[in-house]
Amino acid sequence: MIGWNFQAKRNLPILLVLAVLMVVLIIKLLPSLAHEAVSQQGFPASYQVLKPEMIQPSIVGFGDIEANVQLKSIAEVAGKVVYVHPALKKGELFSKNTLLLKLDDSDARLRQAQAQAAVASAKLALAAKQIELKNTQLDIELSQHKLAIAESEFARIERLFQQSTVATAQLDNAQQALLINKQELQQLENKKSLFPLEISALEASIKQVEADLTQSELAIARAEVRLPFTGRIQQVHVEQGQFVTQGTPLFVASDIAKVLINAQFSYQAFHEFSGFFATPPNVATLSSQGMQSYLSEQILSADVSLLGNDGQIWQGRIERFSDALDPRSQTIGVVVSVANSYQHIEPGERLPLLTGMRAKVRLSAKAQEFIAIPRHLVRNGFALFADENNHLLKLAVGNALKQEHAYLFKVTAMNQQRLITTDLFPIVEGMLLQLEQSPTQS
C-alpha cells in the first residue's frame, strides 16, 4: 500500500482543487436546504386588513384650454382708420368698452345733418296739415250754420211768394243763396275727407327720414369699435391710415372671464365613473331637464390644473358632455369651465389660464364607501391575498375602478380580506405564507 504524504510540495495543487470543490458543493446544497425549511414554515410576508373607506371616485382627463367667447371683429362700415389705440397689440389686455379703433365718419355725419333737416321739415308739414284740418272742421261747422240760416230764409220767402207778397226775383235770390251754401259745405267736407290720406302720407315721410337719420347715427356709432367685454387681444389685422371696406377683419379678442376645457376621458373610465351619478345619463332625462339642470343634480366636482403643475388647482364647473366620441382617440369629451382665472395672479407662482395651454381635469363624484388597493401593491394586473389557511391567492384587478393611486372595489367584495404588502419572489399561487400584520395596522 502506498502512503499519502500531505507534506510533499507536489501534492499541494491537488489539495487546493479538492478544497474548492468542497466549498462549491456546500454552497449549492445550502439554498435547497433553506428553501425546504422555508417551504415547511411558510414564506414570511406582511399584510394589511382591508376596511371600508369614504372615497370620492374620480377620473382624470386632459384637454386644451379655449376661450369661452372669441370675438372676430369686422368693419361694419367702410372708411379710413383714423384712430388706433396705442396699446392695440397681440397679447394686450383691455377692459370692457375700451375704444380700440375709429373709422372716418364724416360722410355719415353729413347724412345725419341732412336727415335731421328732412325730419324737421316733414314734422313741420305734418303739424301744418293738422292745423289745417282743425281749421277746416271749424269752417264746416260755420258753413253748416250758414246753410241752416239759408234754408230757413228760403222757406220764409217761399211762403210769402205763395201769398203773393214777394216777387219772383226774391224767391230766386233766396234759392240761389241756399244752393251756394250747400256747395260751400260740400267742398269743405270733400276737403276734410282727404286730410287722413295726406296726414298718413306725411307720417310715412317722417318715418322714412327718421330711418335715414337712424341709419346715419348707426354708421357713426359703428365707426367706433369698442371691446364688448374685458379680454385679451389675439390678433390685429389693421393699422392707422388704412382704408377698410365693410366686412374687413379688424382684430380677434377672447373673453378672460371664463375659459373652457374639452377634457377627453377614455370610454371605459367614463362608463365606470357614470355609475356613480345620482341619476344615470340617458336621452329622456337630458332632453326633459336640460344638460345644466341634470349635471347640477349629480353632485359632481371638477378640479383643473396645468399639465405638469399639480400644485395650482382651479375649481371648475361641468358645462356639458361632448356630442360624440373622438374618432381618432375613441374618447369622450366633457366640457369644463373655469371662471375668473385672472384673479389672484402671483407672478412666477400662479399664472392665469391662457388659450392653448394643456390642462389636466379631475372629475369627482360624491364620496362613497370603497375598499381601496394601492396601485403599488398590484403586480402585473394582480393583487396578492392570503386565504383562511394562509395560502397565497392572486386576484385580477381588471374590473376595479382605476384611480390615480388605487383600485377601488365594492365593500362587499373585499371587506376584511388580508392584502399582502410584501414584495414576494417567487410568486406561486397556493404557497404557504408566514404572516405578520403590517405595523400601520398592528
From TrEMBL:
PANTHER family: BLL4320 PROTEIN (PTHR30469:SF11), MULTIDRUG RESISTANCE PROTEIN MDTA (PTHR30469). Residues 96-226 form a coiled coil. One of its GO terms (cellular component) is efflux pump complex. The keyword Protein transport does not apply. The chain crosses the membrane at residues 12-30. This is RND efflux pump membrane fusion protein barrel-sandwich domain-containing protein. One of its GO terms (molecular function) is efflux transmembrane transporter activity. Keywords: Coiled coil, Membrane, Transmembrane, Transmembrane helix.
